[in-house]
Structure formats: C-alpha cells, structure tokens
UniProtKB/TrEMBL annotation:
Cofactor(s) required, per the database record: Mg(2+)
Catalytic activity: a 2'-deoxyribonucleoside 5'-diphosphate + ATP = a 2'-deoxyribonucleoside 5'-triphosphate + ADP; a ribonucleoside 5'-diphosphate + ATP = a ribonucleoside 5'-triphosphate + ADP
Domain Nucleoside diphosphate kinase-like, residue spans: 3-137
Native species: Paradesertivirga mongoliensis
Function statement: Major role in the synthesis of nucleoside triphosphates other than ATP. The ATP gamma phosphate is transferred to the NDP beta phosphate via a ping-pong mechanism, using a phosphorylated active-site intermediate.
Protein name per UniProt: Nucleoside diphosphate kinase
Catalytic-site annotation from UniProt: H117 (pros-phosphohistidine intermediate)
NCBIfam families: PRK00668.1, PRK14545.1
Organism phylogeny: Bacteria, Pseudomonadati, Bacteroidota, Sphingobacteriia, Sphingobacteriales
Keywords on record: ATP-binding, Cytoplasm, Kinase, Magnesium, Metal-binding, Nucleotide metabolism, Nucleotide-binding, Phosphoprotein, Transferase
Domain of life of the native organism: Bacteria
Binding site for ATP: K11, F59, R87, T93, R104, N114
The enzyme's E.C. designation: 2.7.4.6
Class of this enzyme: transferase
Length: 139
C-alpha cells in the first residue's frame, strides 16, 4: 500500500536554525505532496522507540538525546518511487558526503544533526507514518 509514500522528520537542528520553510519548499519543489504533517516533539522515550532499530549502535544514546532536544516537523509524503527519490533529495547521512544541492548539503550541521530523516524502505515508511499519524490525520 505504501509504495508511493515515505515518512520524514525535519530534525531539531533544522527547526532551531530556521530552515523549516526552506526544507518544506525543497520537498514540494522536488515533486512530493504532503499528505499529513505536524509540528511536535519527541520525548526520550518516544525517540528511543522510534530509533529502536539503532539500539545496538554506538550513537544511539546521543541520537535519542538529540532527537528529543527540541521541536520537529513530522510528515508523510507522496510521490512515485517516494522512498528512493526522497533519499536522493536529502543526500548522504554525513552532510560532508551529501551531494551539492541536497537538503543535507544545504542545511545539515553534522552527521548526527543532519536536518532531516527519510524512511529507508516502504515497510519502514508505513511503520514510521503510523507512529505519528492516525488514519484520520492523513489525506
Ligand atoms: P535517517 O534514518 O535519519 O533518515 O538517516 P540515515 O538513514 O541516513 O542514517 P541511519 O544510519 O539510519 O542513522 C540514523 C541517524 O542517526 C544519526 N547518526 N549519527 N554519530 C554518528 O556516527 C551517526 N550516524 C548516524 C543521524 O542523525 C542519522 O540520520
Ligand atoms: Mg535511517
């Protein structure tokens, strides 16, 4: 069902640095339609649950602290080939390696504070969208 949808968060660094509008503009210009969106925040508990797949990785504790450090914007996006195309639009995890013109190249601070999240598979896009949004909150 979710093959044409992906899930994103504008992370605390980008919200704090005033990049929310520019990032949403890049997303829309990139051909994505916003089908659900909210301005919200994560607690340590909810950030921990969202990133549970990374529990065993060395950066997990720092990631949870960072993701619960301030407001975020969560959204479900629609486009053909959404997951792959969105990861192209945001660029590599490490902004130093992200292609020029990508969202992380333009707005990220570091490998951790890297401006945006993008789902890595159709299955995770569905799970992550469901984490934030009820059926009533999607168009
Ligand atoms: P995301 O899930 O946020 O879209 O990022 P990604 O797929 O490009 O990267 P992933 O490997 O899933 O890592 C999730 C997030 O953890 C932080 N990270 N920190 N300190 C580090 O070495 C490190 N590596 C990853 C980043 O915020 C990354 O986006
Ligand atoms: Mg990931």
């Amino acid at each position: 069902m979710a093959t044409n949808r992906t899930f994103t968060m504008i992370k605390p660094d980008a919200v704090k640095n005033g990049h929310t509008g520019a990032i949403l503009n890049d997303i829309i210009k990139g051909g994505f339609k916003i089908v659900a969106m909210k301005y919200t925040s994560l607690t340590k508990e909810t950030a921990g649950a969202f990133y549970a797949v990374h529990k065993e990785r060395g950066f997990y504790g720092e990631l949870v602290d960072f993701m619960s450090s301030g407001p975020i914007v969560a959204a479900i996006l629609e486009k053909d080939n959404a997951v792959e195309d969105f990861r192209k639009l945001i660029g590599a995890t490490d902004p130093k390696k992200a292609e020029v013109g990508t969202i992380r190249n333009k707005y990220a601070e570091s490998i951790e504070a890297n401006a945006v999240h993008g789902s890595d598979s159709d299955e995770n896009a569905e799970i992550e969208g469901n984490f934030y949004f009820s059926a009533l909150e999607r168009f």
